[in-house]
Design goal:
The complex is a heterodimer of chains A (80) and B (422).
Chain A: H1 3-17, H2 39-53, H3 68-79
Helix pairs in contact in A: 1-2, 1-3
Chain B: E1 6-15, E2 18-19, H1 21-30, H2 55-64, H3 73-76, H4 82-97, E3 110-115, H5 121-131, H6 142-145, H7 150-159, E4 165-168, H8 174-187, E5 193-198, H9 205-214, E6 247-255, H10 256-261, E7 268-277, H11 287-301, E8 308-312, H12 319-333, E9 340-342, H13 345-348, H14 355-369, E10 371-372, E11 394-395, E12 400-407, E13 411-419
Helix pairs in contact in B: 1-14, 4-7, 8-14, 11-12
Chain lengths: 80, 422
């Protein structure tokens, strides 16, 4: 799947999870924590996005992701 | 007990009959019921539903009216289930009314007792539906949402409560049991103020069906003429079971001395209480134990039956429950007692774990407001020797009020409130 589709899904789900976030300001360089996500929020953005994409990534692998760019890359690898 | 006793300094409520204490008190006074006849609702939906619930809009509306909205209310509970969001609203209302919004007491001296068990049935039902075929998509957040104790976590974070806290389960008696638990925390000196939170229950369709199968809940529509009748008629010979209502309530309790020290307005005093089991696994109430808890609560309050001006019954409209409570009340009060008797569940529906808290708010609101709400559909009482309120509100100058709550599994409880405004 295209990286930009995955990024759009992450951005949309950030809007669902994070109260009052202006999602138009979200870029690939942000970390989820920068955007106000606590650990539960971060996990929910990931599970919602996996649900949208119809993919499943082991939870442990997300520990390597630092920013939205690496998160999108990880999801893209599993959606290929 | 604490010298001077335990007093009520804050109230909050959000249920089908009214959102906020003013609207709720107006509904009580008008005898306005939020219950839908069976013909007007789906068998899988609550009998007394909340109006369409939009949490951010309700917070904004409260802020616009000049009401207090805790800084963390929106963010902390944004993803919470409806029941937790309702609790944040009622908790914040009671907290502000008690004058605790500005951090009047140290966080570690504040307690939280949440009333209710099995609060998350509807959430479990929805999650099972949504994730049955895709377990990998279950969010970690659900590990928090699936627990009744999520109520404690969210509300303590929003209000900054860092003393003792827990949930207290006693089926439909949970509200009273939480009041009693909080009073004991105060008596023991464990906390200086304690929020008692009646948490809403959203039943799953299967749970509602189980109550119907047991014969405790009003039947679903069958196409008969009764489908169009008022669904909940406590103490009337036409009663056909309880009707579930969605709603919660909050009560702030403090020691009388503590409230005086910080100049808090005292709304009522929790003058006595009693809690007993009847040693049964069944749903059956015990007339003897009901009478015993009422007597004990009155004795502990130093109140004779003739001094009692008002009784807020458990009154669910379950035929067995109504007959048993009416008989127990008659035993305790005698045949020509002055106490006015009504049943708030005819207006709010049965809020289950929150019922005792909702009815504590109703009781204090009536004592303070000087009225007893009507029993809108009571025309043929199961026990004519009790002084049931009629179909219109009446003035009430009661010094003491009794509020009963009973629950499946032998829970029997009664609390006595003293009117501090007389």
């Amino acid at each position: 799947m295209d990286h930009s589709d995955i990024f759009e899904a992450v951005r949309r789900n950030l809007g669902v999870v994070v109260y009052d976030l202006d999602t138009t300001t979200v870029t690939l360089d942000n970390s989820l924590a920068d955007l106000g996500c606590n650990s539960i929020d971060r996990a929910e953005v990931v599970t919602l996005t996996m649900e949208d994409m119809g993919i499943s990534v082991p939870v442990m692998e997300f520990q390597q992701t630092r920013d939205i760019r690496s998160l999108v890359a990880l999801l893209a690898r599993h959606s290929a | 007990m604490t010298p001077g006793g335990v007093v009520v300094t804050g109230l909050g409520v959000h249920c089908a009959a009214g959102a906020g204490l003013e609207a709720f008190t107006d509904a009580l006074r008008a005898g306005r019921s939020a219950l839908l006849p069976a013909a007007d609702r789906d068998a899988d939906s609550p009998g007394a539903p909340l109006p369409p619930f939009d949490y951010p809009a309700l917070l904004a509306e409260r802020r616009a009216r000049g009401g207090w909205v805790p800084e963390k209310a929106a963010r902390t509970a944004a993803r919470s289930p409806l029941g937790v969001q309702v609790s944040v609203l009622t908790a914040a209302e009671a907290w502000a009314r008690a004058g605790l919004a500005e951090g009047a007491l140290p966080p570690e001296r504040l307690g939280l007792v949440v009333a209710g068990n099995n609060l998350t049935g509807a959430g479990a039902h929805r999650a099972a539906d949504r994730y049955r075929d895709r377990p990998a998509a279950v969010p970690g957040r659900y590990a928090l949402h699936m627990q009744d104790t999520d109520q404690v976590g969210v509300v303590s974070e929003v209000l900054g409560i860092e003393g003792e806290g827990c949930t207290v389960g006693g089926a439909s008696a949970s509200g009273n049991i939480a009041l009693i638990t909080a009073a004991r925390l105060l008596d023991a000196g464990a906390v200086d103020a304690c929020l008692v939170l009646g948490a809403p229950t959203e039943l799953a369709p299967l749970e509602r069906q189980a109550y119907r199968a047991l014969g405790a809940m009003t039947p679903a529509a069958t196409g008969a003429a009764t489908d169009h009748e008022p669904p909940c008629r406590p103490f009337d010979r036409a009663h056909r079971g309880f009707t579930d209502g969605v709603g919660g309530a909050a009560v702030v309790l403090e020691t009388a001395a503590g409230a005086r020290r910080r100049g808090a307005r005292v709304l009522a005093r929790l003058a006595g209480h009693a809690l007993r089991l009847s040693g049964t696994s069944l749903a059956d109430p015990s007339e003897q134990v009901e009478a015993a808890v009422m007597r004990t609560a009155l004795e502990r309050a130093g109140v004779t039956p003739r001094q009692l001006g008002y009784v807020n019954t458990h009154g669910t409209a379950s035929p067995l429950g109504d007959r048993t409570e009416a008989a127990a009340l008659l035993r305790v009060l005698g045949p020509d007692a002055p106490a006015l008797v009504n049943a708030t569940k005819a207006l709010t529906g049965h809020c289950l774990g929150a019922a005792g808290a909702v009815e504590a708010v109703a009781t204090v609101a009536q004592l303070a407001g000087g009225f007893a709400h009507p029993n809108p559909w009571l025309s043929d009482p199961v026990e004519p020797r009790l002084r049931f309120a009629g179909t219109a509100a009446v003035p009430l100058a009661a010094e003491f009020a009794l509020s009963n709550s009973f629950g499946f599994g032998g829970f029997h409880s009664a609390v006595v409130f003293a009117n501090e405004g007389l």
